[in-house]
Amino acid sequence: MAAYLGVEESLTGRRWVGPAAEEDRLAEAMAQSTGLPGPLARLLVQRDVAPEEAQGFLAPSLRDLLPDPRRLHDMEPAAARLNKAVAQAEKIAIFADYDVDGGASAALLIRWLRTLGREATLYVPDRIGEGYGPNAPAISELSQSHSLIICVDCGTLSHEALAAAGDAEVLVLDHHLGGETLPPALAVVNPNRQDESGELGHLCAAAVVFLCLVEANRQRREAGQSPLPDLMGLLDLVALATVADVAPLIGVNRALVRQGLKIMAHRAHPGLSALADVAGVDRAPTPYHLGYLLGPRINAGGRVGRADLGARLLATDDPGEARELAERLDTLNKERREIESAVQQAAMAQAEERGLEAPLVWAAGEGWHPGVVGIVASRLKEATGRPAVVIGMEGSAGKGSGRSVNGVDLGGCVHRLEAEGLITQGGGHKMAAGLSLTVDQLGPAMARLSELLGRQGAGAGGPRDLRLDGLILPTAATVDLIEALEQAGPFGASAPAPRFALPEAALSDARVVGDGHLKLSIRTAMGQRLDAIGFRLADTPLGKAMLESRGGAWHLAGRLEVNHWQGRSRPQLRLEDAARA
């Protein structure tokens, strides 16, 4: 396929790839039969939505899309055991992972229990000292004073650790890929168990916990018990976890996030409200705010600070405590950024030296902080369009984290490495995975992982291909069009926002604003104007070329958004790439 607009190499070194002719034909037919704007019709075609399904897709109903919790194995006994613990005032411990999904999962349970007059002990392991998931000493200690231990966002592969529970009973509410056998637990609710169909494999752990609470409420209703905690008011936590854990925004996940964003806008939970304030979120939240402003701050506690800060923030009802925790997490996030920046520069340089043509991009370095390797892997993935793994070495041992691209199951491949003895330990899900290995295993393991990922199509496109969804002219880039496109959202993993090319744009102004951001003004021959913003692009080759531009026309590429400023709303292009016209 010829390069789109003839751009073989843009200012970021990428080749532009546009939509296929068949997609153009289907989009035109969709627009004619539904009356929808052309760009929105094209987006629905890309989502494999038929014309007769368009209206239902644009208004997803949680009532219609929420699955029956009993579709998942062990759901009924898990919910029954939870209700029994409530009825008998048992001591309950919640063992949660240290990321956003784990924190939100724990907060869901804590809030549900609190409504019923019960409290729970929260335990979040230290990332460096204990590592991911349950460990035998912690489980043994919890079992001494609790009759029920609930593992959230972890536990599916923790056979040895859960065997230390003694007389305490264990529930596992998880979504990570399961092994051939289940751990010793009363119930393991996990859509990614090997004996599950996989139809709900896209759920994050918080969504699994939410379904468990739906089932628990149903059992309480059938038994004539009251009160019934309000679950709809907890959907802001499910939305946050779904977006932050990069769960695909398809099926019920779309409805969960859409409804959760509406709940979050009401600012009913002190923790999320305080976090939004310190992050500067001053309007109705979007998936961008969840994934790039709130999520990283919650994760900061587990990465470079105290692991339970995020879960405590999400669970608290005390505005004062919420403000204090949010400020601590904001400070830790700044520290995390400094550490991350140094590791990212070194990792990218190493990956580029190795070459970016293989199915896998990876880097490993001595002393790289284990709390930032995952986010650096995400940066490498975004920069190269390939699955990425970043490993921090400490002497002869290393711990790493990986992030994948749509359509490539990284967690399954990491499980394969462990089964083949190429790594010490590993696990995860399709979009993210963690692993431990020795320095001697490093080279062979990464070579084998690259081979396995390549079989799934990783790296099939050019290493720097930039896929575009069509052309847009400044006159067509209106607030109304952007709001129409947002009906197909929320946008995120497996459901990206459309990326447009703005052809032969004439720049009337280019300047630096804020912390290294690039601000452009585009004017048409008719005098109409469209602004563009390129975050952190001012010091890049793209930004320097724009700032030094003296006339001439440019092809610009990016995503449309509404810029809310001083009470006014204007269309804006979020710039990602450019090329001389």
**What profile does the largest beta sheet have?**
5 strands, parallel
Biggest sheet strand order reads 3-2-4-5-6
Count the E strands. Answer: 17
Uncertain segments of ≥5 residues (pLDDT<50)? none
What structural category arises from helix and sheet content? Answer: alpha/beta
- Provide the helix percentage: 40-55%
Tell me the β content: 15-25%
Query: How many helices in DSSP terms?
Result: 20
Radius of gyration: 24 Å
**Whole-Å distance between the termini?**
19 Å
Mean of residue pLDDT values? 94
- Please tell me what the overall shape is: globular
Please specify the SSE layout and strand pairing.
Blueprint: E1 16-17, H1 21-34, H2 38-46, H3 54-58, H4 62-65, H5 75-87, E2 92-96, H6 100-115, E3 120-123, H7 136-143, E4 148-152, H8 159-162, E5 169-173, E6 187-189, H9 205-222, H10 235-244, H11 252-265, H12 270-279, H13 287-304, H14 309-315, H15 319-354, E7 361-366, H16 373-384, E8 388-394, E9 397-403, H17 410-419, E10 425-428, E11 432-438, H18 439-455, E12 466-467, H19 479-486, E13 500-513, E14 517-523, E15 529-534, H20 541-547, E16 553-565, E17 568-580
Helix pairs in contact: 1-2, 5-9, 6-9, 6-10, 6-14, 9-10, 10-11, 10-13, 12-15, 13-14, 13-15, 14-15, 15-16, 17-18
